[in-house]
Amino acid sequence: MADNIRNNENKFSLRCPDCANGIISINTIEYDLPDGDKMLIVKFVCDSCNFHKNDIIPMTTRIEPGIMTLKVSNENDLKSKIYRSPTGKLEIPELELIVEPGPRADFYYTNVEGILLRFEEAVLIYKNSLGKTDPEFKEIEELLIDLNKALKGELNFTLQITDMGGGSYIIPQDQSTYSFKKIDNLKIDHE
Ligand SMILES: [Zn+2]
Questions:
Q1: The CATH number of the domain where 126 resides is what?
Q2: How much distance in Å is there from the Cα of 45 to the middle of ligand 1?
Q3: Reported pTM
Q4: What's the CA gap between 177 and 107, in Å, rounded?
Q5: How many other C-beta atoms can be found within 10 angstroms of the C-beta atom of residue 7?
Q6: Domain end among 59, 84, 103
Q7: Distance 34 CA to ligand 1 centre (A)
Q8: How far is the CA of 55 from the centre of ligand 1 (A)?
Q9: In a shared domain, residues 33 and 81
Q10: Which of 103, 151, 157, 186 is deepest in the core (most CB within 10 A)?
């Protein structure tokens, strides 16, 4: 494990809110980001049911607005961590996925796989609301096939966060898949 991660396990314990029997272990990981910022990842795991939760606390605030781009091409990339602040817009153009900035999804911390699973769930609900004769039905089925490939690491796609307020992060599994473009004077220059 890299030196920039410090791991603390089982310093506290509490009763599981889900099954009420298990004990939750709390594991905190302090993470030094390449730009010098720090954040704290807090994991809650129940020892008797499936309850688990990840939380993230930025320890320093980066207010640099910019566009973060992650190229995903294999299963390992799906584990790259994503932290989208309320001012961040998240997009996967290849899958027509757009999560608009907004307070409803404050401090949304997950990984690429978590985003795909959440999206798949929404698409399935939408598909079930359509009749089989609906002209959109086939399109949605094709999207689900692509999503399935993406979840297996068999589809190349781009995950992009545009954050005009700053505070969003991508922590790539492989640094070479990640790029950051600063936004100056709150305007994006299109190349
Ligand atoms: Zn439990």
A1: 2.60.120.1040
A2: 8
A3: 0.67
A4: 23
A5: 10
A6: 59
A7: 35
A8: 17
A9: no
A10: 157
